[in-house]
Known about the structure:
Chains A, B: One of its GO terms (molecular function) is DNA binding. By secondary structure, the first copy, chain A, is mainly α.
Amino acid sequence: MTHNSENFRSNCPINFVLETFGDKWTLLIVRDLMFKSKQYYGEFLKSNEKISTNILADRLQKLESSGVIKKAMDTQNKSKVLYSLTDKGKDLLPIMLEITSWSHKYDDKTNVPENFIKALSTNRASVISQTLSKLK
Amino acid sequence: MTHNSENFRSNCPINFVLETFGDKWTLLIVRDLMFKSKQYYGEFLKSNEKISTNILADRLQKLESSGVIKKAMDTQNKSKVLYSLTDKGKDLLPIMLEITSWSHKYDDKTNVPENFIKALSTNRASVISQTLSKLK
DNA sequence: CTGTATCCTTAGGGATACTG
DNA sequence: CAGTATCCCTAAGGATACAG
């Protein structure tokens, strides 16, 4: 992905991720794909944060055009579309894990399984490989 | 920080960071504090992304009330205010580093010193301690 | 220099109806 | 079920003037 003149603000790596993920919704879709094994449009709609259908469609498009996710036809059911992470999307996993750790530390309401947190601090590499192996 | 009813959407750790950092500006202030040694209002204003003064004031307030940054009077110059990261703010460093790696990998325009990237992959712990030691 | 305040415009996003 | 389309409103944010 290259910068387009529309949203280009700087050559900073922090700014670069903000151009794609600097909103309230986009990263939730990545989360659903990465940790919740969701693949279908309707499954994203059902998440707790209640994304609306027009926003979901918009973000799926943007994620696809930025190469973070890809679409495929469900071979079993032709009317269904399967969404999945590309390698670029999968590479967001370390960021997601650091976010999870930070929130777990600073938000008492954040709900993450204790054994996941423990595995993360003691055997991070295996958490990564296991998470990736579960992806569709 | 606890969730307030205003922006509460779920108990998900990913959502939790989005409630604070899910916009185009907030994380840039953290970046300036963490990597650019900026401490003054006017310095944030001068960043490449050109944040406007009302947005900057709003984000500084929100970051302070969420405990990520703190204010202090400049002892040399009473009319100046010094901003700095709290421990909670400093703990964002691993997230920032993962973001930097990802952007460096996927955006050819992203400008990060090569020796920083190399140090990050070969001696991450020392990058962390060195970055923290340079903080005001 | 460090903010506040105001005005104004645009983008984000909720609700909902509709289509294949 | 998987989206599109439309309507409408609010929040985000740019520009700029002003104040301590």
